[in-house]
């Protein structure tokens, strides 16, 4: 798995961790029973994963269409004016520091072997014209990334007694965000300690806000008289 894929997984998994944390702590703060918390967490895990997967698919499909348009345009230009494309490729390598004779040799060899790939790499940084974005693969990665973040917390809700749910869920959040922070750092996005501290701090802050918000709703429910919609008093 390359670094860009790891970074994408970290983002998707963090979405699952933090979203599920907010739901569980919010419902716990509101005094919801076990069944309600479990239903909310499970529903979020599934719908959140599907939503993220759908959004990822739509974005990837747009990228794929743009990539295919670039490939088709390069193919058209190569068919119409191959010599002009070769000269552009030569000029590209001259601008990269090669002397004109060597740039001419390199451009000629690349144009004989893979003219489309050479042009795409020089102009757009695409190494292989056949490796366009695969929307379904991106969608699956988004869905399972979110699921991998949400699942540990959801499982904790199932197997942990009510009186231990808050402490255990926070522990699961810390462990999960520590793992994603370390993976993020390994993928080249920062120092491990800073990455872990940032992830854990954000997750716990959201958990605290969600728990307090749930408590607010519980207080409102307890102290504000219920409106009698039937008019019976």
Give a verbal description of the structure.
- The protein is mainly alpha-helical.
- It has two domains: 3-63 and 134-217, no CATH class; 65-124, no CATH class.
- Helices cover 83% and strands 0% of the residues.
- It contains eight helices and no strands.
- It has helices at 3-29, 34-80, 82-95, 100-113, 115-124, 135-159, 162-186, 192-223.
- α1 packs parallel to α6 (135-159).
- Keywords: Membrane, Transmembrane, Transmembrane helix.
Give the N-terminus to C-terminus distance in angstroms: 65 Å
Based on secondary structure, the structural category is mainly alpha
Q: Helix fraction?
A: over 70%
| Morphology | elongated
Largest sheet: none
Instruction: Compute the number of structural domains.
Output: 2
Number of DSSP E strands? 0
Using the CA coordinates, give the radius of gyration: 26 Å
Secondary-structure element pattern, one letter each: HHHHHHHH
pLDDT averaged over residues:
79
Low-confidence stretches: none
Number of helices: 8
Strand content: under 5%
């Amino acid at each position: 798995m390359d670094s860009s894929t790891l970074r994408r997984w970290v983002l998707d998994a963090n979405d699952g961790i933090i979203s599920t944390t907010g739901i569980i702590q919010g419902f716990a703060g509101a005094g919801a029973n076990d069944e309600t918390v479990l239903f909310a967490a499970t529903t979020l895990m599934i719908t959140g994963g599907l939503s993220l997967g759908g959004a990822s698919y739509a974005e990837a499909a747009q990228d794929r269409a743009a990539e295919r348009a670039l490939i088709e345009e390069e193919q058209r230009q190569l068919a119409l004016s191959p010599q002009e494309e070769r000269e552009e490729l030569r000029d590209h390598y001259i601008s990269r520091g090669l002397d004109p004779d060597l740039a001419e040799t390199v451009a000629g060899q690349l144009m004989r072997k893979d003219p489309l790939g050479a042009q795409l790499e020089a102009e757009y940084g695409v190494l292989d014209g056949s490796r366009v974005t695969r929307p379904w693969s991106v969608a699956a990665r988004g869905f399972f990334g979110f699921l991998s973040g949400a699942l540990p917390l959801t499982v904790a809700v199932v197997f942990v007694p009510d009186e231990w749910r808050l402490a255990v869920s926070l522990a699961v959040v810390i462990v999960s965000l520590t793992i994603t922070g370390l993976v993020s750092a390994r993928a080249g996005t920062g120092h491990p300690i800073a990455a872990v501290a940032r992830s854990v701090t954000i997750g716990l802050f959201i958990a605290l806000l969600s728990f307090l918000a749930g408590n607010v709703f519980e207080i409102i429910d307890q102290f504000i008289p219920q409106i009698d919609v039937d008019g019976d008093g």
